[in-house]
Amino acid sequence: MKCKILLFPAFIATSFFANAQSTGKTYAITGKANNSFFWADIKQVDIASGKVVKTLFEADKTPFKTVSLEKVADANTARSITTNPTGLGVAACALDVLHNRLYFAPMHFSEIRYLDLSKADANFTTVKSKVIASPDEAVYQSEENQLTRMVIAADGYGYALTNDGNHLIRFSTGKKPIVQDLGSVIDAAENNGLSIHNKCSS
């Protein structure tokens, strides 16, 4: 079932930092020294000092393990996550404090993955690939269908939004996650004509 949801600026404001303020820790998706546009490394940062405490995952360098919660994994996803779990870069991320996981969406796909922060080594899980349906022959998602905003809300659910704002995705974070497309968002009247559906103003 599709539903319409009013979208407020506070909800959609996101960055590549996922905070855990009670412990003074934050997690950041960063670029590389020789390629600042390849946002694929995951680091733990001290909030007070702003310094990197630990590198949890470095693309093309850190050994890792992967698993998919899907019964039948998408072939493109399987190739992507076994080569590099953060893919061609990360478009959005959110911290699940309850389960100690860093959820994220890789660029050029409409997928939900997470890094288990409780494990000493890098353990990645694909929750769902092709959250937004695409032609079977398509390797990558179109620009508008990529997930570029993400948050873990106070209700315990995770929410992700496509680039064009036409698909608000809700996902549970328990042992058997449920992923739902809640439909398109509606701009709040207070936006005064600025629309999340307009890529020049959102």
Give an account of the 3D structure.
- The chain has 202 residues and is mostly beta strands.
- The protein has one domain.
- Helix content is 6%, strand content 38%.
- It contains two helices and 15 strands.
- It has helices spanning 9-12, 75-83, and strands at residues 5-7, 17-20, 25-30, 41-46, 52-57, 64-68, 90-96, 101-106, 112-116, 122-128, 147-152, 158-162, 168-171, 179-181, 185-187.
- The strands form four sheets. Strands 6-10-9-8-7 form a five-stranded mixed beta sheet, with no helix packed on it.
Given as residue ranges, the uncertain stretches (5+ residues, pLDDT < 50) are: 1-15
Ends: how far apart? 26 Å
Question: What is the number of beta strands?
Answer: 15
Indicate the percent of residues in helices.
under 10%
Number of helices: 2
What topology, given as strand order, has the largest sheet? 6-10-9-8-7
SS-derived structural category: mainly beta
| Average residue pLDDT | 84
The whole-angstrom Rg is 17 Å
Sheet with most strands:
5 strands, mixed
String of helices and strands: EHEEEEEHEEEEEEEEE
Principal-axis shape: globular
What count of domains describes the coordinates?
A: 1
Q: What is the percentage of strand-forming residues?
A: 35-45%
Briefly, what is this?
The protein is mostly beta strands.
Question: How are the secondary structure elements laid out?
Answer:
Layout (H helix, E strand, L loop, with lengths): L4 E3 L1 H4 L4 E4 L4 E6 L10 E6 L5 E6 L6 E5 L6 H9 L6 E7 L4 E6 L5 E5 L5 E7 L18 E6 L5 E5 L5 E4 L7 E3 L3 E3 L15
Parallel strand pairs: 1-15, 6-10
Antiparallel strand pairs: 2-3, 3-4, 4-5, 7-8, 8-9, 9-10, 11-12, 12-13, 13-14
